[in-house]
# Entry
Amino acid sequence: MQAKVKAASTVQAHITALAGQCVKCGLCLPHCPTYRLAGTEAESPRGRIAFAQALAERHLGATPSVLEHLDNCLACMACERVCPSQVKYGELIATTRAWLRDTGAAPRGALSLGGLLAHPRLLGTLLRMANLPGPRRILQSRVMRALLRPFGTDRAVAELPRLPRIEVQPSRAPEPPRARVGLFLGCVAASVDRDVHAAARTLLQALDYAVVLPSAQGCCGALALHNGDAAQAARLGETLRSLFGGAGVDAVLVSASGCFGTLRDHVFADSPVRVREIHEFLDADAHIGTLKFRPLAERIALHTPCTQRNVACADGAIARLLARIPQLQIEALHAPPGCCGAAGDYFLHHPETADALRAQTLDSALATQAQSLVTSNVGCRIFLANGLRERTAGIPVMHPVVLLARQLEN
Ligand code: SF4
Ligand code: SF4
# Structure
């Protein structure tokens, strides 16, 4: 008991120290999607930092309203990127959420995907079954959604991801390879991004890498961390360290920007295994100029996920890689809201905010009059594709790596 109290007070001191770095300048406010929507201090980074500090110092009780403002944060990290005082906002909000959860102040979400995400094969089987034409029609019918509403699962069913067709030509494994790299498959992405993983393999093998894909990888733990479940995140991380640590790879490559930060900063932070964002890796490869791409006379809208811009910091690499496709017109989105609203499983629990951010992102994408939308995170791809389908037919949403592999000359 004594140890538990001491541990809690140490965590509170850590939260206070992190919050103390904030000089309350407010420079982060215009970059925060929830502040831009609500226009209130309580929905801003500065407001959330003040709440976390007041809670840790026991000047404030964990009222439903305070918890809601903390919970409304998308963890997009736009505030951390622009902060001149280098406040570690990501660490602050994750620590605060975990502390509130451990002390029983914050309730666990009604719908927890945590257990399922640790078992990608089971998740894949369920997604395949749900995507059969008959079951999908029934699941997404009005009647079924009304029946599921009391259990809080109607939103998950409405936003069910579609499974991709794999249209990328496989390339031959190099003999001998230049190096061995591992490819992180993820949980939802292991099914929904199968086209991305096939495309990544094609490109990497064309650059003479041996690509290792350990099975039963599971989730990176981002969702668990986001929801303050540090124990679940630690269990998932242990599995990944053991799988990739024994695979003899020079680096683990990540094609979903939402998973990249968790893998780099938590799972492999103290490991000799290096984590690389796939676009940054391909762009920096000395042999990338040897790949030839077929021309594509199309205009694409390039959406940059918040995690790509604020955590992976590899948005420049994506644009440079796509510019290697002759005749391709790349249009960046004008004034998107900074986060599309997907934000892990945020879209399930905060439908109003998520839908407002998605609508703004799609407005911005459609204004480019592009023939397709390109985005590099699995969650954004699912959420934006579902939103686009409701507004207009025939605009595919794809990952940059898929577009590159499709245009690769054999
Ligand atoms: S988090 Fe940084 S940018 Fe935002 S108010 Fe505090 S010091 Fe200023
Ligand atoms: S992480 Fe994003 S949503 Fe959360 S406070 Fe910072 S800018 Fe706002």
